[in-house]
């Protein structure tokens, strides 16, 4: 009985406890947060800075946030954008991004936003692999 | 922003994510990240020269 508080504290501090897909979901919603959840502070900060930075540069270049899926390229772009998680939804709500690509840099910006989403998916899967022990 | 600075930024961000996610130890992450950055930036420079020479 005397060991109960110690065990309880260890369970609270052990990142391997709880829902196994939590780092994957949290990492998708907020870039780097999956790694923060697993106490990989340095990796999480670098991932967050890279993904949020790429998304922000894309927005600054007047890149387009996909919202409609009329053809196959729009569908693929939308899937890529959705990889950014909350960044995409906050961007849509805040009205960020251009509706139409009108200058050359905006075309690059659109790719930056899509690739930021794809990189975020890679980071979230990496957090899941850390959680399951597939990666050290 | 110039095309080349956009290339460098793209290479930097992508290389950081690739390095962290595709390798396990910090030393190997750094080496792989630098490797990816050089490949991204280097291939852009080489392809730019190829297109320049083709267009002449």
Keywords:
heterodimer; A: 136 residues; mainly alpha; 7 helices; 67% helix; elongated; disordered N terminus; B: 56 residues; 0% strand
Secondary structure layout:
The complex is a heterodimer of chains A (136) and B (56).
Chain A: H1 4-13, H2 22-29, H3 33-37, H4 41-60, H5 72-82, H6 86-93, H7 104-132
Chain B: H1 3-22, H2 26-55
Describe this structure in words.
The complex is a heterodimer of chains A (136) and B (56). Chain A is mostly helical. Helices cover 67% and strands 0% of the residues of chain A. Chain A has one domain (20-132). Chain A has helices spanning 4-13, 22-29, 33-37, 41-60, 72-82, 86-93, 104-132. In chain A, helix 5 packs across helix 7. The longest helix of chain A has 29 residues, at 104-132. The radius of gyration of chain A is 18 Å and the shape is elongated. Chain B has 56 residues and is mostly helical. Chain B is built from two helices and no strands. In chain B, helix 1 (3-22) runs antiparallel to helix 2.
Average pLDDT score of chain A: 87
The run of helices and strands of chain A is: HHHHHHH
The biggest chain-chain interface is: A-B, 22 and 14 residues
Distance between the termini of chain A: 34 Å
Radius of gyration of CA atoms of chain A, rounded to a whole number: 18 Å
Integer count of domains of chain A: 1
Distance between the termini of chain B: 26 Å
Which parts of chain B are unreliable, with pLDDT below 50 for 5 consecutive residues or more?
Answer: none
What would you call the shape of chain A? elongated
Q: How would a crystallographer describe the biggest sheet of chain B?
A: none
In brief, what are we looking at here?
The complex is a heterodimer of chains A (136) and B (56). Chain A has one domain (20-132).
């Amino acid at each position: 009985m005397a060991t109960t508080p110690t065990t309880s504290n260890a369970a609270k501090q052990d990142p391997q406890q709880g829902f196994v897909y939590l780092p994957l979901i949290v990492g998708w919603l907020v870039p780097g947060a999956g790694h923060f959840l697993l106490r990989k502070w340095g990796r999480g900060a670098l991932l967050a800075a890279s993904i949020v930075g790429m998304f922000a540069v894309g927005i600054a270049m007047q890149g387009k946030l996909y919202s409609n899926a009329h053809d196959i390229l729009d569908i693929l772009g939308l899937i890529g954008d959705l990889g950014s998680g909350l960044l995409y939804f906050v961007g849509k709500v805040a009205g960020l991004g251009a509706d139409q690509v009108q200058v050359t840099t905006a075309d690059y910006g659109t790719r930056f936003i899509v690739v930021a989403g794809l990189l975020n998916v890679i980071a979230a899967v990496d957090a899941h692999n850390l959680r399951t022990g597939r990666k050290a | 922003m110039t095309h080349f600075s956009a290339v460098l930024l793209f290479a930097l961000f992508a290389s950081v994510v690739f390095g962290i996610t595709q390798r396990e130890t910090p030393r190997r992450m750094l080496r792989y990240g630098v490797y990816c950055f050089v490949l991204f930036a280097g291939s852009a420079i080489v392809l730019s020269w190829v297109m320049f020479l083709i267009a002449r």
